[in-house]
Amino acid sequence: MTKPSVLWIEDSARFELRNLVGPLFFSGEYDFNLAEDVTSAMYLLRAKEYAGIIVDIRLPPGIDPEWRRHYRQSGYDKVHSQLGLKLLYWLLGKDRSIHPEAPPAWVKPAGVGVFTVESQPEIQKDLDALGITVFRQKAAGLPDTILLELIRELLNQARQA
Amino acid sequence: MDGQAVREFVRHFDFLEMPIGVYVVAPDGRFLECNQPVRRLLGLPPQGAVEASISDFYAEPHLRTVLLQKAQAAEERGAFLEKEIIPFRVNGQAIFVEDYCKPLRDPATREIIGYIGCLVDVTAEQNKVDELTFDIGRVLHANTSTLLMAQQTLDGVAEALSHLALKDAIATPLEEMDDRLTKQADQLANAIDRLLQTIEPARRLQALPAAKWEELASHAALLRQVRDHVPVLEMRPPPLRRTAHQIGQTFQEISAGVLPRESIRQVQRAAEQLENTACLIDVLITRTAIVQMDATLRSLRDFITADVRKEEGKQRLSIKQLTEQAISHMAEFAKSSRVDIVRRDRDFDADVEGSERDLVRALSNLLHNAIKYSWRRDRTKSPWVTVRTYARDGMVCVEFENWGVPITQEEIDDGLIYRLGYRGKLSKDRGRLGTGIGLTDAKRTALAHRGDLTVTSRPASPGPPHPEDWEYYNQPFITTVTLCLPEWGKQRTAHS
Question: Are residues B328 and B189 in the same domain?
Answer without folding.
Answer: no
